[in-house]
Amino acid sequence: MQEPTNISAVGSFRQRLAAGPVWGPFSKTCDAGMIEVLALGGFDFVILDMEHGPNGFETVQHLIRAAERRGMLPIVRVAQAAEQPIAKALDLGAGGLQVPQISDPGQLRRVLHAARFAPRGERGVCRYVRAAGYSAMPRQQYFVAANEALIVIQVEGQQGLANLDALLEVGGFDIVFIGPYDLSQSLGLVGQVEHPRVLAAMEEVVRRCQARGVVTGTFVESPAASARWRAAGVRYLSYAVDVGILLEAARAIVAQVRAPEGAPR
Ligand code: 3PY
Ligand code: MG
Q1: Of 31, 108, 164, 198, which is least surrounded by CB within 10 A?
Q2: pTM for this structure?
């Protein structure tokens, strides 16, 4: 009998997350082939970005399929903390959900309510969806297994920082993800993600989450930043963005091939 799409993959991803860091890029491509390439490169997960990327759900479902096919967990970052996109991403079979700009406990409870079936929430019920094998899944099995999808909440503003303990008290999610860019803006330092005040605020979030045994994640753009946050105990490392990775690779190649004859390579 068919499993709900991706649920066993979520279980093994949780084990890897518990054992040590996992890495995955954000994706803003429309191409399922690019998703396969990221998996073949060895990333553990991919965050299909509907907050800042161009894709609608019709495209995202194909990107989810491509990630599944290559054994990489597809996580959908929804555009906002609203009921409809949350339910739709899960109906399409996302292994995880990443929700931006979580700032207060009431909002977090609404997100969890929209993401979980009863008794944990009141997610809109339909079993003729991809996540349920279009009804091939035994229904009770689906409703139980679907509640295992990974939930990542982004804390990336001053209000979220101020309410961090209250958010941790609500619980019911897997990872607190610190968005350094939005956080830098919120602290009046837009884009200065390496500014000491931004780093100090991030370290404080990591420390307070760790004190409660909550896994943290963040966004890094270099091996050095990855090493820094890995050493701090961050276990969910979102490494750059696929389009930026491609740009960097293209630039490096062009710089090499255009170098004058005889110049050191
Ligand atoms: C942020 O930095 O604000 C993010 O959401 C992830 O890059
Ligand atoms: Mg952000």
Answers
A1: 31
A2: 0.96
